[in-house]
Amino acid sequence: MTFSTFTPAQAAELAVVERSGFIESRHIGSAVVLDPQGSPLISLGAPDVPVFTRSSLKPLQAIAAMSLGAQLEGQSAALAMASHKSESGHVAVVSATLEAAGLSVSDLQCPSAHPADGAFRRELQEAARAQGAENTDPRSPLYFNCSGKHAAFLAAARAIGADTSTYLSPDHPVQQKVAEVVTAFASEEPSAVGIDGCGAPVFALSLTGLARAIGRVIRMGSSAGGVEEPKGAWAAYESEARTLTEAVFADPWTIEGHGRPNSTVIDELGVFAKGGAEGVIVMATRSGYSVALKCLDGSSRATGLVALTLLQRAGAFDAEPRGASATGNDKVDAVIAAITDPVTGGTDSEGRTNVVGRLKLGEDIATISERKRD
After folding, report:
1. Are the CB atoms for 295 and 5 separated by under 8 Å?
2. Which InterPro entries match (predicted)?
């Protein structure tokens, strides 16, 4: 039997690509926005049908590792839930995490990769040439975008005295703890377990369960005195949630990279954002509003635009004591523009790239009225 996510017939139109006044492409998918209590405010497509959560799951994987004793704080905690672009700063933090746990790069079981950050890659190449190295092609598991998560898994295995050579096995104590944490925060049993691109187990959850889980992490991690105490199995992880939330808001560059979409959303709007492969993204405000969506074609081109628009139309930013609420819709719109690539075609007489179209909201979102809080 083959399990499946939702079908095109169940999906909604989330975004379209307009080129020269012609609708060239359509992104269909599913999405959901939840309020801080976990009740749906906006539902599109089939958000209760499972999807593989991919890297959007990383906050829960980091919480599991920390709860087992992985000594992560500050930037090392943030890198545990990052999909980093291998800037020099990312690599330094992951290296330090491994060293602190008595581990090395050779213990990482994620694939080898080149640094996605061009400046750091060139820096490594120049250093290799200066040393007269035969091979100047920098490639290592350390540069893979999930290396921070893998370092956290290894640190957790070392902390509990478990085998570090099998840390990616679904039966390993670290991965069993991840499954427990996922179920607690999502209030939902995963419907399937697969192998992620980095080799780690990845869980299939409904978008509603994913939004619920990450909304709880960020709300619980952001709560101050006077805020109602969280209830439920997830409440046992309040310390880890707080450490992660404080870490990523203190250093947004850690989660993806300077100027990258997720990091920009966190930095400019004070909203947690974590994309995943195959068109998945989750965002959550400090007050606990959350959105999760998947583009069915697996493209991430429209995910930031759609997620921020849905939070905006659900009235989520009106509930924030700081961040986006301070400047209203203009700032949210500016961030959407900053993280959404234009549609281009050729150059003008001065050699500048022509903008000939744009990514626009699909009909199923364009018709949603903006909600205002009382």
Report:
1. no
2. Asparaginase_II
